[in-house]
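Retro notes (design track)

What went well: tokenization of the new backbones is finally stable.
What didn't: we kept losing track of which sequence belonged to which structure.
Fix going forward: every design gets posted as structure first, then sequence, in one message. First example under the new rule, 249 residues:
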């Protein structure tokens, strides 16, 4: 989300005439028009479909979701560190540098979001809690979408004020470093042939939905008309039910 918010601003920022003071003190952007940015975004969108439908399945089949995820997460900080320096490229190479960063970002997004969702679903200890896990994950992602661009946009503005246009990018890169370290602690859940977590493959869903026989009796009694609630009538209706339970046991 932070990349999507910072990149259009970076592309449309005016070209700086001030000499850079490497390694960190420089400002400016590419001065691109909205039309040129739109062309780049369209190309990025077409490539995103290819990365999601072709690139990710091939790599996931070859290396597995966790390895693909780790490899890509490790490259996110490098991308955020290098993007601001593309403004220092010679004019004839600037478009090439922008395209490399955009396609790098699109590939990284396809190779992190998809395996993250797959591993999240596979890590559920039971199908009964899968909905709750996905709900918490979706709420957390929405929270990051709300605060991420706000914080990085604030850091980008502060960076421009002190002559360091890459500040917002590099702060986001530090957050990516934390995520890369966390990926090393992740373990991929083992899945059986039915697509369920093997930790609980011996558990039956019926164990979690057992109904108390007394509750059944109470429900039957409540549904009978008051005039028919004689002891003999009730016993004639409930005894076959209990006999059936004993035969089933």
């Amino acid at each position: 989300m932070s990349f999507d918010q910072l990149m259009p601003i970076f592309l449309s920022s005016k070209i700086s005439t001030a000499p850079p003071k490497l390694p960190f003190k420089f400002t400016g952007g590419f001065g691109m028009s909205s039309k040129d940015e739109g062309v780049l975004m369209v190309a990025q969108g077409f490539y995103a479909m290819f990365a999601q439908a072709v690139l990710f399945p091939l790599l996931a089949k070859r290396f597995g979701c966790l390895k693909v995820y780790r490899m890509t997460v490790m490259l996110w900080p490098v991308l955020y560190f290098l993007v601001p320096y593309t403004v220092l490229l010679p004019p004839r190479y600037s478009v090439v540098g922008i395209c490399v960063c955009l396609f790098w970002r699109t590939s990284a997004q396809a190779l992190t979001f998809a395996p993250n969702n797959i591993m999240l679903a596979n890590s559920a200890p039971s199908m009964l809690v899968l909905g709750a896990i996905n709900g918490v994950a979706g709420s957390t992602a929405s929270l990051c979408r709300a605060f991420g661009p706000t914080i990085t946009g604030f850091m980008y503005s502060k960076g421009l004020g002190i002559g360091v246009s890459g500040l917002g990018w590099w702060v986001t890169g530090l957050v990516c470093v934390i995520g890369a370290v966390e990926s090393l602690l992740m373990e991929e859940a083992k899945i059986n042939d039915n697509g369920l977590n093997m930790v609980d493959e011996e558990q039956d869903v019926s164990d979690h939905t057992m109904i108390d026989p007394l509750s059944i009796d109470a429900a039957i009694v409540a549904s009978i008309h008051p005039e028919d609630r004689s002891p003999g009538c009730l016993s004639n209706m409930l005894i076959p039910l209990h006999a059936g339970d004993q035969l089933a046991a």
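Added context from the reviewer: Residues 2 and 232 are 73 Å apart (CA to CA).
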